[in-house]
Amino acid sequence: MILAVQPRALSALVAGRPVTLVSGTNGKTTTTRLLTDALRTRGSVATNASGANIAAALADTVATPADQLVLEVDELYLPRVLTETRASAVVLLNLSRDQLDRMNETKAVAARWRAALATAELPLYVVANADDPLVAWVAEAAVDVTWVGTRNSWSLDSAVCPDCGRLLHHGPEGWFCDCGRHRPATTFAVVDGRLETPDGVLPLTLQLPGTVNAGNAALAVAAAAARGVAPVDAIAAIEQVTSVGNRYRRYSVGGATVRLLLAKNPAGWAELLSLLEPSNSTVIAINARVADGRDPSWLWDVPFEALAGRTVVAIGDRRLDLAVRLAAAGVEYVVADGLRAAMAVRPEATAVDVAANYTAFRDLALELDRAR
Amino acid sequence: MRIVLLHPRLLGTYGDGGNALVLADRARRRGYDVEVVPVDGAASVPQDADVYLLGGGEDQAQTLATNLLRKSGLDHVVGAGRPVLAVCAGLQILGHRFADPSNQAIPGLGLLDVTSGRGAVRAVGEVVAEPYDGSPVLNGYENHRGVTTVGAEASPLAHVALGIGNGDATGTEGAVQGSIIGTYLHGPVLARNPALADRLLSAALGTLEPLDDELVDRLRAERLSAAASARATGRLRRWLIRRRTG
Q1: Distance from CA of A346 to the nearest CA of B (A)
Q2: Which residue of A210, A238, A260, B193 shows the fewest CB atoms closer than 10 Å?
Q3: Per residue in A8-62, pLDDT tens?
Q4: What does pLDDT average to in each consecutive run of 10 residues of chain B (246 residues)?
Q5: Do the chains contact at B58 and A105, CB–CB below 8 Å?
């Protein structure tokens, strides 16, 4: 493994080119893609589009010839990759529970991020989600921060002020604490489906669904601006994106259109549930392999009650855990063995939404690709 | 009936809010109207609810929740014999003391005779434990760094067949005292152990009609098999076979 043998290998491969890192619990791959497309309006960009975001996997991407690099980085590896690539820009999306058995303490991850920013080589442009109190606490340690209002926060994890330990409050202006800490003033912000920028308020009409993606787009536009791309040009590129990797992708299977959606943790799932069309057939696939986090207790923090009135087909390794959750949520369910069996439950359906977590999504994407 | 969920924003890191959903569902299926009442911040704890639940959380949140609960009236609830389920951090909070990340002792609420410290390694993984009162085997998932010693006024909940549990070399899991049940099991624990859920409900409501638990029994069978094959010894395998056929 390159990095084990030569700790400086990444830095040598970067060879002085500008590097932007994108990290957080949710939205890394999408934001990396949006930022890459925005930066490609001005030159070539190498990126780890396949989402291989653990330190050792980055070397291949970094070795690619291109004017600059945009790298999605797993939360646990951000400090190390920041040092090894000497990145000059970092995009901080959010920090919430993900893979409970691996992450254990989101606060500990935040503390390591904060220390990394405080000691990072300058210049370092930090683009940070102002609506995430934990990210705000992290980004304060940086010299240069561009605050972005995304309207995205998962309030369960931001319940405690990272500084004084009191319960946070949430008001119309955003989060705030009795100790005086509050949501910072933003340079970019999603407001009423449009984007506030230093150049004025610009229209933002994404083809990617969901309000969370508007926030991801805002962060990407801000990061692109740090590299000299005008917001209006960044938005134009971002509005062209219809799918990211296999996410939001539509596949034809028999006579039906299958839309594949990914979420990995309660925050992502809460957002995803709002994207599921009530008239579509709904399939949910849950695994709990190492990469998913071995403990699917998080299913009980997902508001599946919102699906009442529909029948959900449960597939994946942990379909029984999911079925028990759905039953307690008052949602009709059918347990099936794989996607084909799931689609056979409602064979007349022409539109199928398949929502899956990480490894289930990956395996379904492969299966759907082979079926084409 | 009313189910009080204590500090879900602080003590909800591991999906333990689901215990309230399970109890509510099981009570509704028996014809009860159920209200789940979350208690957050400085609000005092309702004294007249039927079941009280505390879940697991991160270190800072655990200390904050403990301080918020100190003068909240929870001691009267326990004194009145109301059923309480305390999971992971919740279990530690009810005890005499627990340790923060720097190993400093934080006073607990002293309502349960247990003392917790910080272990050398994190206990993470599937747990199978046999309750000392002969009720059905408990299965769940633990994820904690606590080492809990059960004092004379309390009794351990179960004997660990697989996993770590209290982690103090007694091979025990959880603690029971009066109307309090404490455990390190997530899952959520009541979702995976309907007998335990009904134990709490009947303590609150009296005799209960049995429910059709075919789905959760399938889940339990699958989880026990998975645990057995993941870390089985011949002894555990034989024990599990005896449990299923005996």
Answers
A1: 22
A2: A210
A3: 678 888 888 999 999 998 899 999 999 999 999 999 999 986 656 666 678 888 8
A4: 95 93 98 96 94 93 94 95 97 97 94 96 91 96 94 98 94 98 97 98 96 97 86 57 57
A5: yes
What stretch of H or E contains A57? none
pTM above 0.80, yes or no: yes
Q: Test A299 with B18 for CB contact under 8 angstroms.
A: yes
- Whether A156 contacts chain B with CB within 8 A: yes
CA–CA gap between residue A137 and residue B72 (Å, rounded): 30
Q: Looking up tokens 């003590």, which residue turns up?
A: B11
Distant-in-sequence contacts of A362-365, Cβ < 8 A, 24+ apart: A363/A287, A364/A260, A364/A285, A364/A339, A365/A245, A365/A246, A365/A249, A365/A260
Other residues' Cβ atoms within 10 Å of the Cβ of residue A309: 9
Report the run of H or E that residue A266 belongs to, with start and end: helix A266-273
Count of other CB atoms within 10 angstroms of residue B234: 7
CB-CB contact of A151 with A211 (8 Å): yes
Which two tokens mark B105?
Answer: 């002792």
Query: Residue A99, Cβ neighbours under 10 Å: how many?
Result: 21
B7 is catalytic: no
Using only the alpha carbons of chain A, give its radius of gyration. 21
- Judging contacts by C-beta atoms under 8 Å, the chain A residues touching residue B222 are 320
Catalytic residue among B7, B76, B88, B144: B88
The answer to whether A104 contacts chain B (CB < 8 Å) is: yes
The whole-angstrom separation of Cα B26 and Cα B197 is 8
Asked if A334 reaches chain B (Cβ–Cβ under 8 Å), the answer is no
What residues of chain A lie within 8 A of the CB of B17, using their CB? 300-301
CB within 8 A of A114, min separation 6: which ones? A137, A138, A140, A141
Residue bearing tokens 């639940």: B53
Residue A175's H or E segment, with its range, is strand A174-176
Complex ipTM over 0.90: yes
